[in-house]
Each structure stands twice: as C-alpha cells, then as structure tokens.
Amino acid sequence: MEFKGSPRLLIVSDLDHTMVEHGDHDNKSLLRFGALWQSEFNHDSLLVYSTGRSPKMFADLRREVPLLTAGIAILSCGTEIFYGDTMTKDHGWIDIISKGWNRAAVEEVAEEMNLKYQCDSEQRPHKVSFHVRKEESVHTMPTLLAKLLEKGLDIKLIYSGGLDLDVLPRAAGKGQALRYLLQKLKAEGRVPQQTLVCGDSGNDQELFSVDNVCGVIVANAKDELLQWHADQVGDKSHIFVATENCAAGIIEAMKHFGLEPNVSPRDRTVPLSVHDKLVPKADAGAAAREVVEYLLLTEQWLRGDISASEEVFRRLKFGLAKDSSRVCAWGTIDSPHKEIENLQAQYGSQRGKVFHMWADRVRSMKLSDDSWLVRFDKWERSGETMSTPVFECLIADWSNCSVILSFFHYQRLEYTNGSM
Ligand code: GLC
Ligand code: MG
C-alpha cells in the first residue's frame, strides 16, 4: 500500500529510458535509485510511475528489471491510474476522461488515413496508439488533428520517441493525471512537501508544466522533449537537464534540487556497517536502512565486491542476533545465523555473474522505543531469474549499538519471473 501521510517527497517518474535504462544489463542506476528510495524515502514519501505502457506491458517490465513497487502507477499515458500493491483502479478518473471521448470516431479517421496501429495490448479504452515515422509525422499529425477536430472530438495527440503517436481524450495525459492526483492528495490533507517529475520523451512534457513541481529531463532525453525545453521562454529554473542518463540523472537531480538524502547506499565505498552508527536513531527510516544495507552487504560479499577480510565478515554477522530463528510458513525452523556462517565459504562465488540482491516494499511498524517489526520482499537476481520470498524481521536493541535483525518469519510467496 502506498504511504498514507503527507509525502515528504513525491517522485513521479516515467519508466522507459527514464527510470529504466534499457541498454544497462546490470541495471546499475536502477538498483542505485532503488536502494536510496527504500532506505531513505519509502517510509515517508511516495513513488509514482507514469508511463505510456499498458497494464500488460507494465507487468512485462516488472518481470524484466529490478523495479521497485510504486505506491501509484499511472499507466497508458495518463489514462489509467492504479493504487497500491493491489493495483486498485481509479474509476473516478475514468469518469472524468470519458466525457466526450469517442474511440470509434478516432478509429474511423485512422482507417481513412491508413495509419499503422501499435500492438493490441497498447490499444486501451482511452488511448489509441500508432507508429508514425519521424519524417511522416510532420504531415500526418496536423492532418490527423484537423480531421479529428472536424468531427468535434475533444482529443489531444502526443508524439514520443520519434515513433509513437497516441490519441487521448484532451482531459487525459500524464500532466492532467498528475494534476488530478495532486488535487486528490490535497483534498485528503496530504499535500507533498516537494514533487520531482522525471522524463525523457514527448509524453512526459506535460509533467513539467504542472504547478509547484521541479523536474528532471534525463541526459539521454529524446529530441522532441529537448526541443520543447529549448523553446520555453522565461524562468526554467524548476527544470534540470541532467548530465547523467536515466535513474542516475534522477539521483543527480535530487542533488541539484537539494532533495536529501541523495547518496545511495550502493555508492558508499566503505562496507556498509552498523558500526558506523554508534548511536543509531530508532525510527522507521533507520529500520528500513538496516534491511537495505544488510542485503547489500550480502550481495557485495557474494560478488566479491568487498574485501574478504575477517573484519568485513564480522560486520556481516554483527547485525544478526545469534539466537535468531526463522519460522517458515510451511513449519520448519532454521537459523539465519548458520546461513551466514555458510556464507563465509561462498565469498566471491557470484563474481562476474549477473547477481543482485535488493529490498522492495520495506514496511516498518514500531513495537516499542527500541524495536521495530519490518516486513520486506528480499529480491534476488541470478542471471535471467528473479525471485523473492517475503521476510519479516525484528530490529531491536539500538541502544547497545548492536542493531539486531532477528528473522522470525519467512514466507515463501514464491515469485520467479512473474509466476506467483
Ligand atoms: C509506451 C506505450 C505506447 C505509447 C508510448 C508513448 O511505449 O507502450 O503505446 O505510444 O509509450 O506514450
Ligand atoms: Mg520514456
């Protein structure tokens, strides 16, 4: 479920070529952003994806790359809004954008002009999508627009990536969907302290014109968005054009706009360690940080990215309660401590391989002044396979500087590349 208070930070990000760098097979910057978000923001902020993808293609992407679960997903180019883990659809939004929309009339014109449809999954109730080459778009777009307006249709055309043409109700689109969401949050008394929008192509343009947002155009942005930015007159200081690509550009923008903290745990060279936190602050954020850092340290150990010294291994073991036990959903009890002992011999076993571990949906509940119950999905990617069990652990004893992770419940809601 998405964070229910007033978000300290609201990030609204496009996915393809913004959050997700398709050429980066190691998903380095996506994992950097994920670790930063889970450890520092997930407990009091809200992550929203805003993508042109349909629900099907959104699900496809989630099976392919280490994408965090967002609190809200705005799909199909701002024509469908879904909330929380359960992806509950916003029907109020559908009612708003349905007024005056006539899909059949759009299709009629498209046939008359012999336009090339995108695949079936990308045709949605309030989105008709085509492929139009850049050279042709100069002629096709004004002609299509004129014909649709002639029919009295209240629509808009959006051209992205030098190929994709979407016809949407004029009341829809990424910008309108965000305005709707912000109004909704306001009505609930949950105005975000700060909002950062992130994009790379034509369908993201509207996001940058929403009131009170700052925005980042990632370095790898498409011509149409860069051209739009160049054409804007007046103060553009709320838009930052990054020098880095995709999610790395988002982190760069967080630094630019002073949105803190903005150093990912994955960018710290010193092995992450509970030793660093002599007086750990017991709050929901600190509990989440422990989980993220613990998984990251395990990943680095197995990949051999950190030194194989006794000291590093001690750090790995340090946070884990000696007597911690794990009660599995199917009734067996095992010892995470023993598992960690076994890790010693596995140092570097994943070196040079595609291997990552990360936490998603980290949620903490305060039990007492120095203890938190944390639930999270522990993801592991090995080659092409991604899988996750769900964990619960108790984090306690902050005062002693021995932050203790005591895994006591382990539920294998097995998920391997899409199968639940
Ligand atoms: C995504 C969608 C596609 C759309 C494009 C631009 O790629 O799958 O249908 O045209 O975004 O909005
Ligand atoms: Mg994009």
From TrEMBL:
Pfam families: S6PP (PF05116), S6PP_C (PF08472). GO terms for biological process: sucrose biosynthetic process. Transmembrane segments: none annotated. Pathway: Glycan biosynthesis; sucrose biosynthesis; sucrose from D-fructose 6-phosphate and UDP-alpha-D-glucose: step 2/2. It is an enzyme of class 3 (hydrolase). Residues 288-396 form the Sucrose-phosphatase C-terminal domain. Its EC number is 3.1.3.24. It catalyses: sucrose 6(F)-phosphate + H2O = sucrose + phosphate. InterPro entries: HAD-like_sf, HAD-SF_hydro_IIB, HAD_sf, NTF2-like_dom_sf, SPP-like_dom, SPP_C, Sucrose_Phosphatase, Sucrose_phosphatase_pln/cyn. One of its GO terms (molecular function) is magnesium ion binding. Its cofactor is Mg(2+). Residues 8-258 form the Sucrose phosphatase-like domain. Keywords: Hydrolase, Magnesium. Catalyzes the final step of sucrose synthesis. Homodimer. Belongs to the sucrose phosphatase family. This is Sucrose-phosphatase. The lineage of its organism: Eukaryota, Viridiplantae, Streptophyta, Embryophyta, Bryophyta.
